[in-house]
Structure formats: C-alpha cells, structure tokens
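Q: I have 205 residues here and want to know how they pack in 3D. Can you give me a structure?
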Amino acid sequence: MLKLRQVSKAYGSLMAVNRVSLEIPAGQIWALSGPNGAGKTTLLKIMAGILQPDQGQLFLEDISPGESKKVVRYVPQKAGLYPNLSVGETLQFFAALCAAENLEEVLDRFQLTALRHRLLRTLSGGQRQRVVVAQAFLGEGRLLLLDEPTANLDADTSERLQEELRRFTGRGGSVVLSSHIAVDLEEGLITRRVLMKDGAIEGIL
C-alpha cells in the first residue's frame, strides 16, 4: 500500500500540490484526473522520489526507504532516452539497474524483438514510447507510476499496456497513472479516480 499524508509542494507562490492524502492499496489502479496544471505530474514525481515534498509524509508499506528505488517504476510522458543507443542496449541498461531477468520476455511482449538492433533515433514516436513503457515492466516492481501513459501509443500498444497493467496488479503491484483525458483507458481497468484541481483533491470516484 502507498500512503501519502498531507503532502504539499510549492514553487515560489504556486502551490503545485496542496495537502494531498491518499491510501492506494496493493493490486489496484488509481488514475489522477484533471486539467493541465492540476498537479498530477508533480504528485507522481513526489511518489517516485524524484521530488521531495515541502511538507507531509509518503511511504510504501513493507518497503524500507533504501529499497524503494528497486521496486518503484516511473514512466514520464517524455523520457530522455539516448538516441544513439539501440532498443536492446537501452532496455539492457534499465534491466541492469533493477537486476531484471525478464528482458527477453519484455521485448517479446511489447513486440520489440524485431527492433532490438534499431537505434532509437530511427524509430517513430510511437515506437520510442513503446520502449519507454516497456522498461517499466523489467524486474519485479511493486509500484508503477505512469504520466500520460497512452500518449503517442498506437491502438495495439495501448491494448498491450492495459494487459500488462492487469498482470502487474494481479501479482499485487499498485499503479498510479495520470491523464487529463479521463477516458484514455478502459473504464473497467481503473479502480478509483482522483479528481485534482489547483494541486488539491476535489474528489475520489
């Protein structure tokens, strides 16, 4: 379970995240919904440990702070990948970071085996995003954080992502994803929706 208690983050006078408290159980998929500027990306970065909150507490149940980087996966909308590396080299790099042993399986599941020797700079935007999403499923993650996960994905890859999310939660993982379009993914896939505006929670559906 991921727990946030009164988490806040400000940039000068702008309150990007305002006293957010959540408890996200294992095996569930929660969506952060709201307009651009609602605080979704900032909140995800706090959950990922990329940003530190100004106030409040956050912890992943049964996971020590030192272990969190091994089990938390964060997928930004626009990832900074090295264009002169191949698909295989890129995923091998991420696999080494988390001691993953399922590289070949992930390549196959995301239909990247045929592209493994292609340089990233030669791929289409959709193919690059497929690589970005695929790296999140390397190793044994416990918490998966995705920012606008369906951006630039074709229909087949979007469907594959939804199957992988079901697989991930089926073995007890938790997922938090953001989207300013509330219908990006199948409605039945989402356990709860957190409605955000101006950095605060307006409601949970």
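Q: Anything worth noting?
A: The mean pLDDT is 89. The first strand starts at residue 2 and ends at 11.
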